[in-house]
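Problem 12. The chain below contains 412 residues. Write out its predicted structure in token notation.
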Amino acid sequence: MRRHVKAMLSILLIIGLLWSPVELKAEEQNQKEPIVLIHGLGGWGRDELFGFKYWGGFKDIETNLNRQGYRTYTASVGPFSSNWDRAAELYSYLKGGTVDYGEAHARAHGHARYGKTFSGVYNQWDNQHKVHFVGHSMGGQTERVLLQLLKEGSLEEREYYKQHPEVGISPLFEGNKDWVRSVTSIGTPHNGSTFADEETMSSFIKEFVIKIASLSGNNPETFGYDFKLEQWGLKRKQGESFLQYADRMLNSSVWKSKDISAYDLTTAGSKELNQWVKTYDDVYYFSYTGDATYRSLLTGYSVPLLTMNPLMYLSGLHIGKFTQGYAEPIINEKWWPNDGLVSVVSSQYPIGHRNQPYAGNAQKGVWNYTATKYNWDHIDFIGIDLADTLGISDIYSFYNEVASNIYRLPLN
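Solution.
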């Protein structure tokens, strides 16, 4: 009997020696690869709004993830800037340095080349120290644009630099950077939002920001919110109330530019993005989407559920019945189910890119789209709506699930 026990212990010891280094290596590597949370349209940083978080409201998703062992950072980029500008800002926020939007890009769109200077929250970011991007709403587009620039850089910027070497070039636009292990999108309009196609978008933006001011307990008149459009020469004036500031921002001619969120979020702008931003074979992709509508027996349209945030009723109604047959993308009843701002079919994956339903079998180079979360609207996903309070959703459990899916990924 003792011989059998010794033999069994020897076998277990050998197995342990064989497997432990691999498991330890994976654990250590995951500890080194942080999650970066990237906010969507209208978002803000942790040091804004007197502690009211974009990621969690009065809760704190970043802190909770860190407590669970998932090293996490919360990025802060232009809430209404274009995906290109936001990607440049996100690069400097992580790596450190002055934001460089690119000389060619800045000249083409008529704004300043340089922005803020960041110390960098993850200065060691490189091929050996990768990150996992998690973007909500427009943040899912921004992370894809940054990944594209890291991988391939910008031909336009490199060509301009060849002709004008005295202006220099940001390392971001040189490409050849395999710095991202995974990309996760949450409620992202990969194919655009049909509501963004409407000219009422600027009115919605102002109403949304004012509602956030109310939710955070601040007076909209004195609200400390930053549109972060300094590259366009737009900065809050001393003594200017928030409502005056917002009116000036939203009435600016910048909104007629294509280098702004209002265009990037349209179906046409998103189609352009999907044509040059690729899905890469060596990166993992996940997407999460919600549906806060039901099919009306009377009209057949998708109508908002009572639990949808009232701010999004009109946009949800619009998306739930909008059709378009005269231009790509063709929009039919498949686009009607939505989370109040984004159609389910738009947030699952970019049209024409490889995809598969996710059931625990993630593949590289494929959009692994998860089962749609019914009764979740667009801002339920960031925990600042009623769903978490009412027990419809559990925001901490949701992000623990997101992080767990990421950290289970193989290292090769």
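Discussion. The radius of gyration is 23 Å. Students who got a different answer should revisit the alignment rule from Section 12.3.
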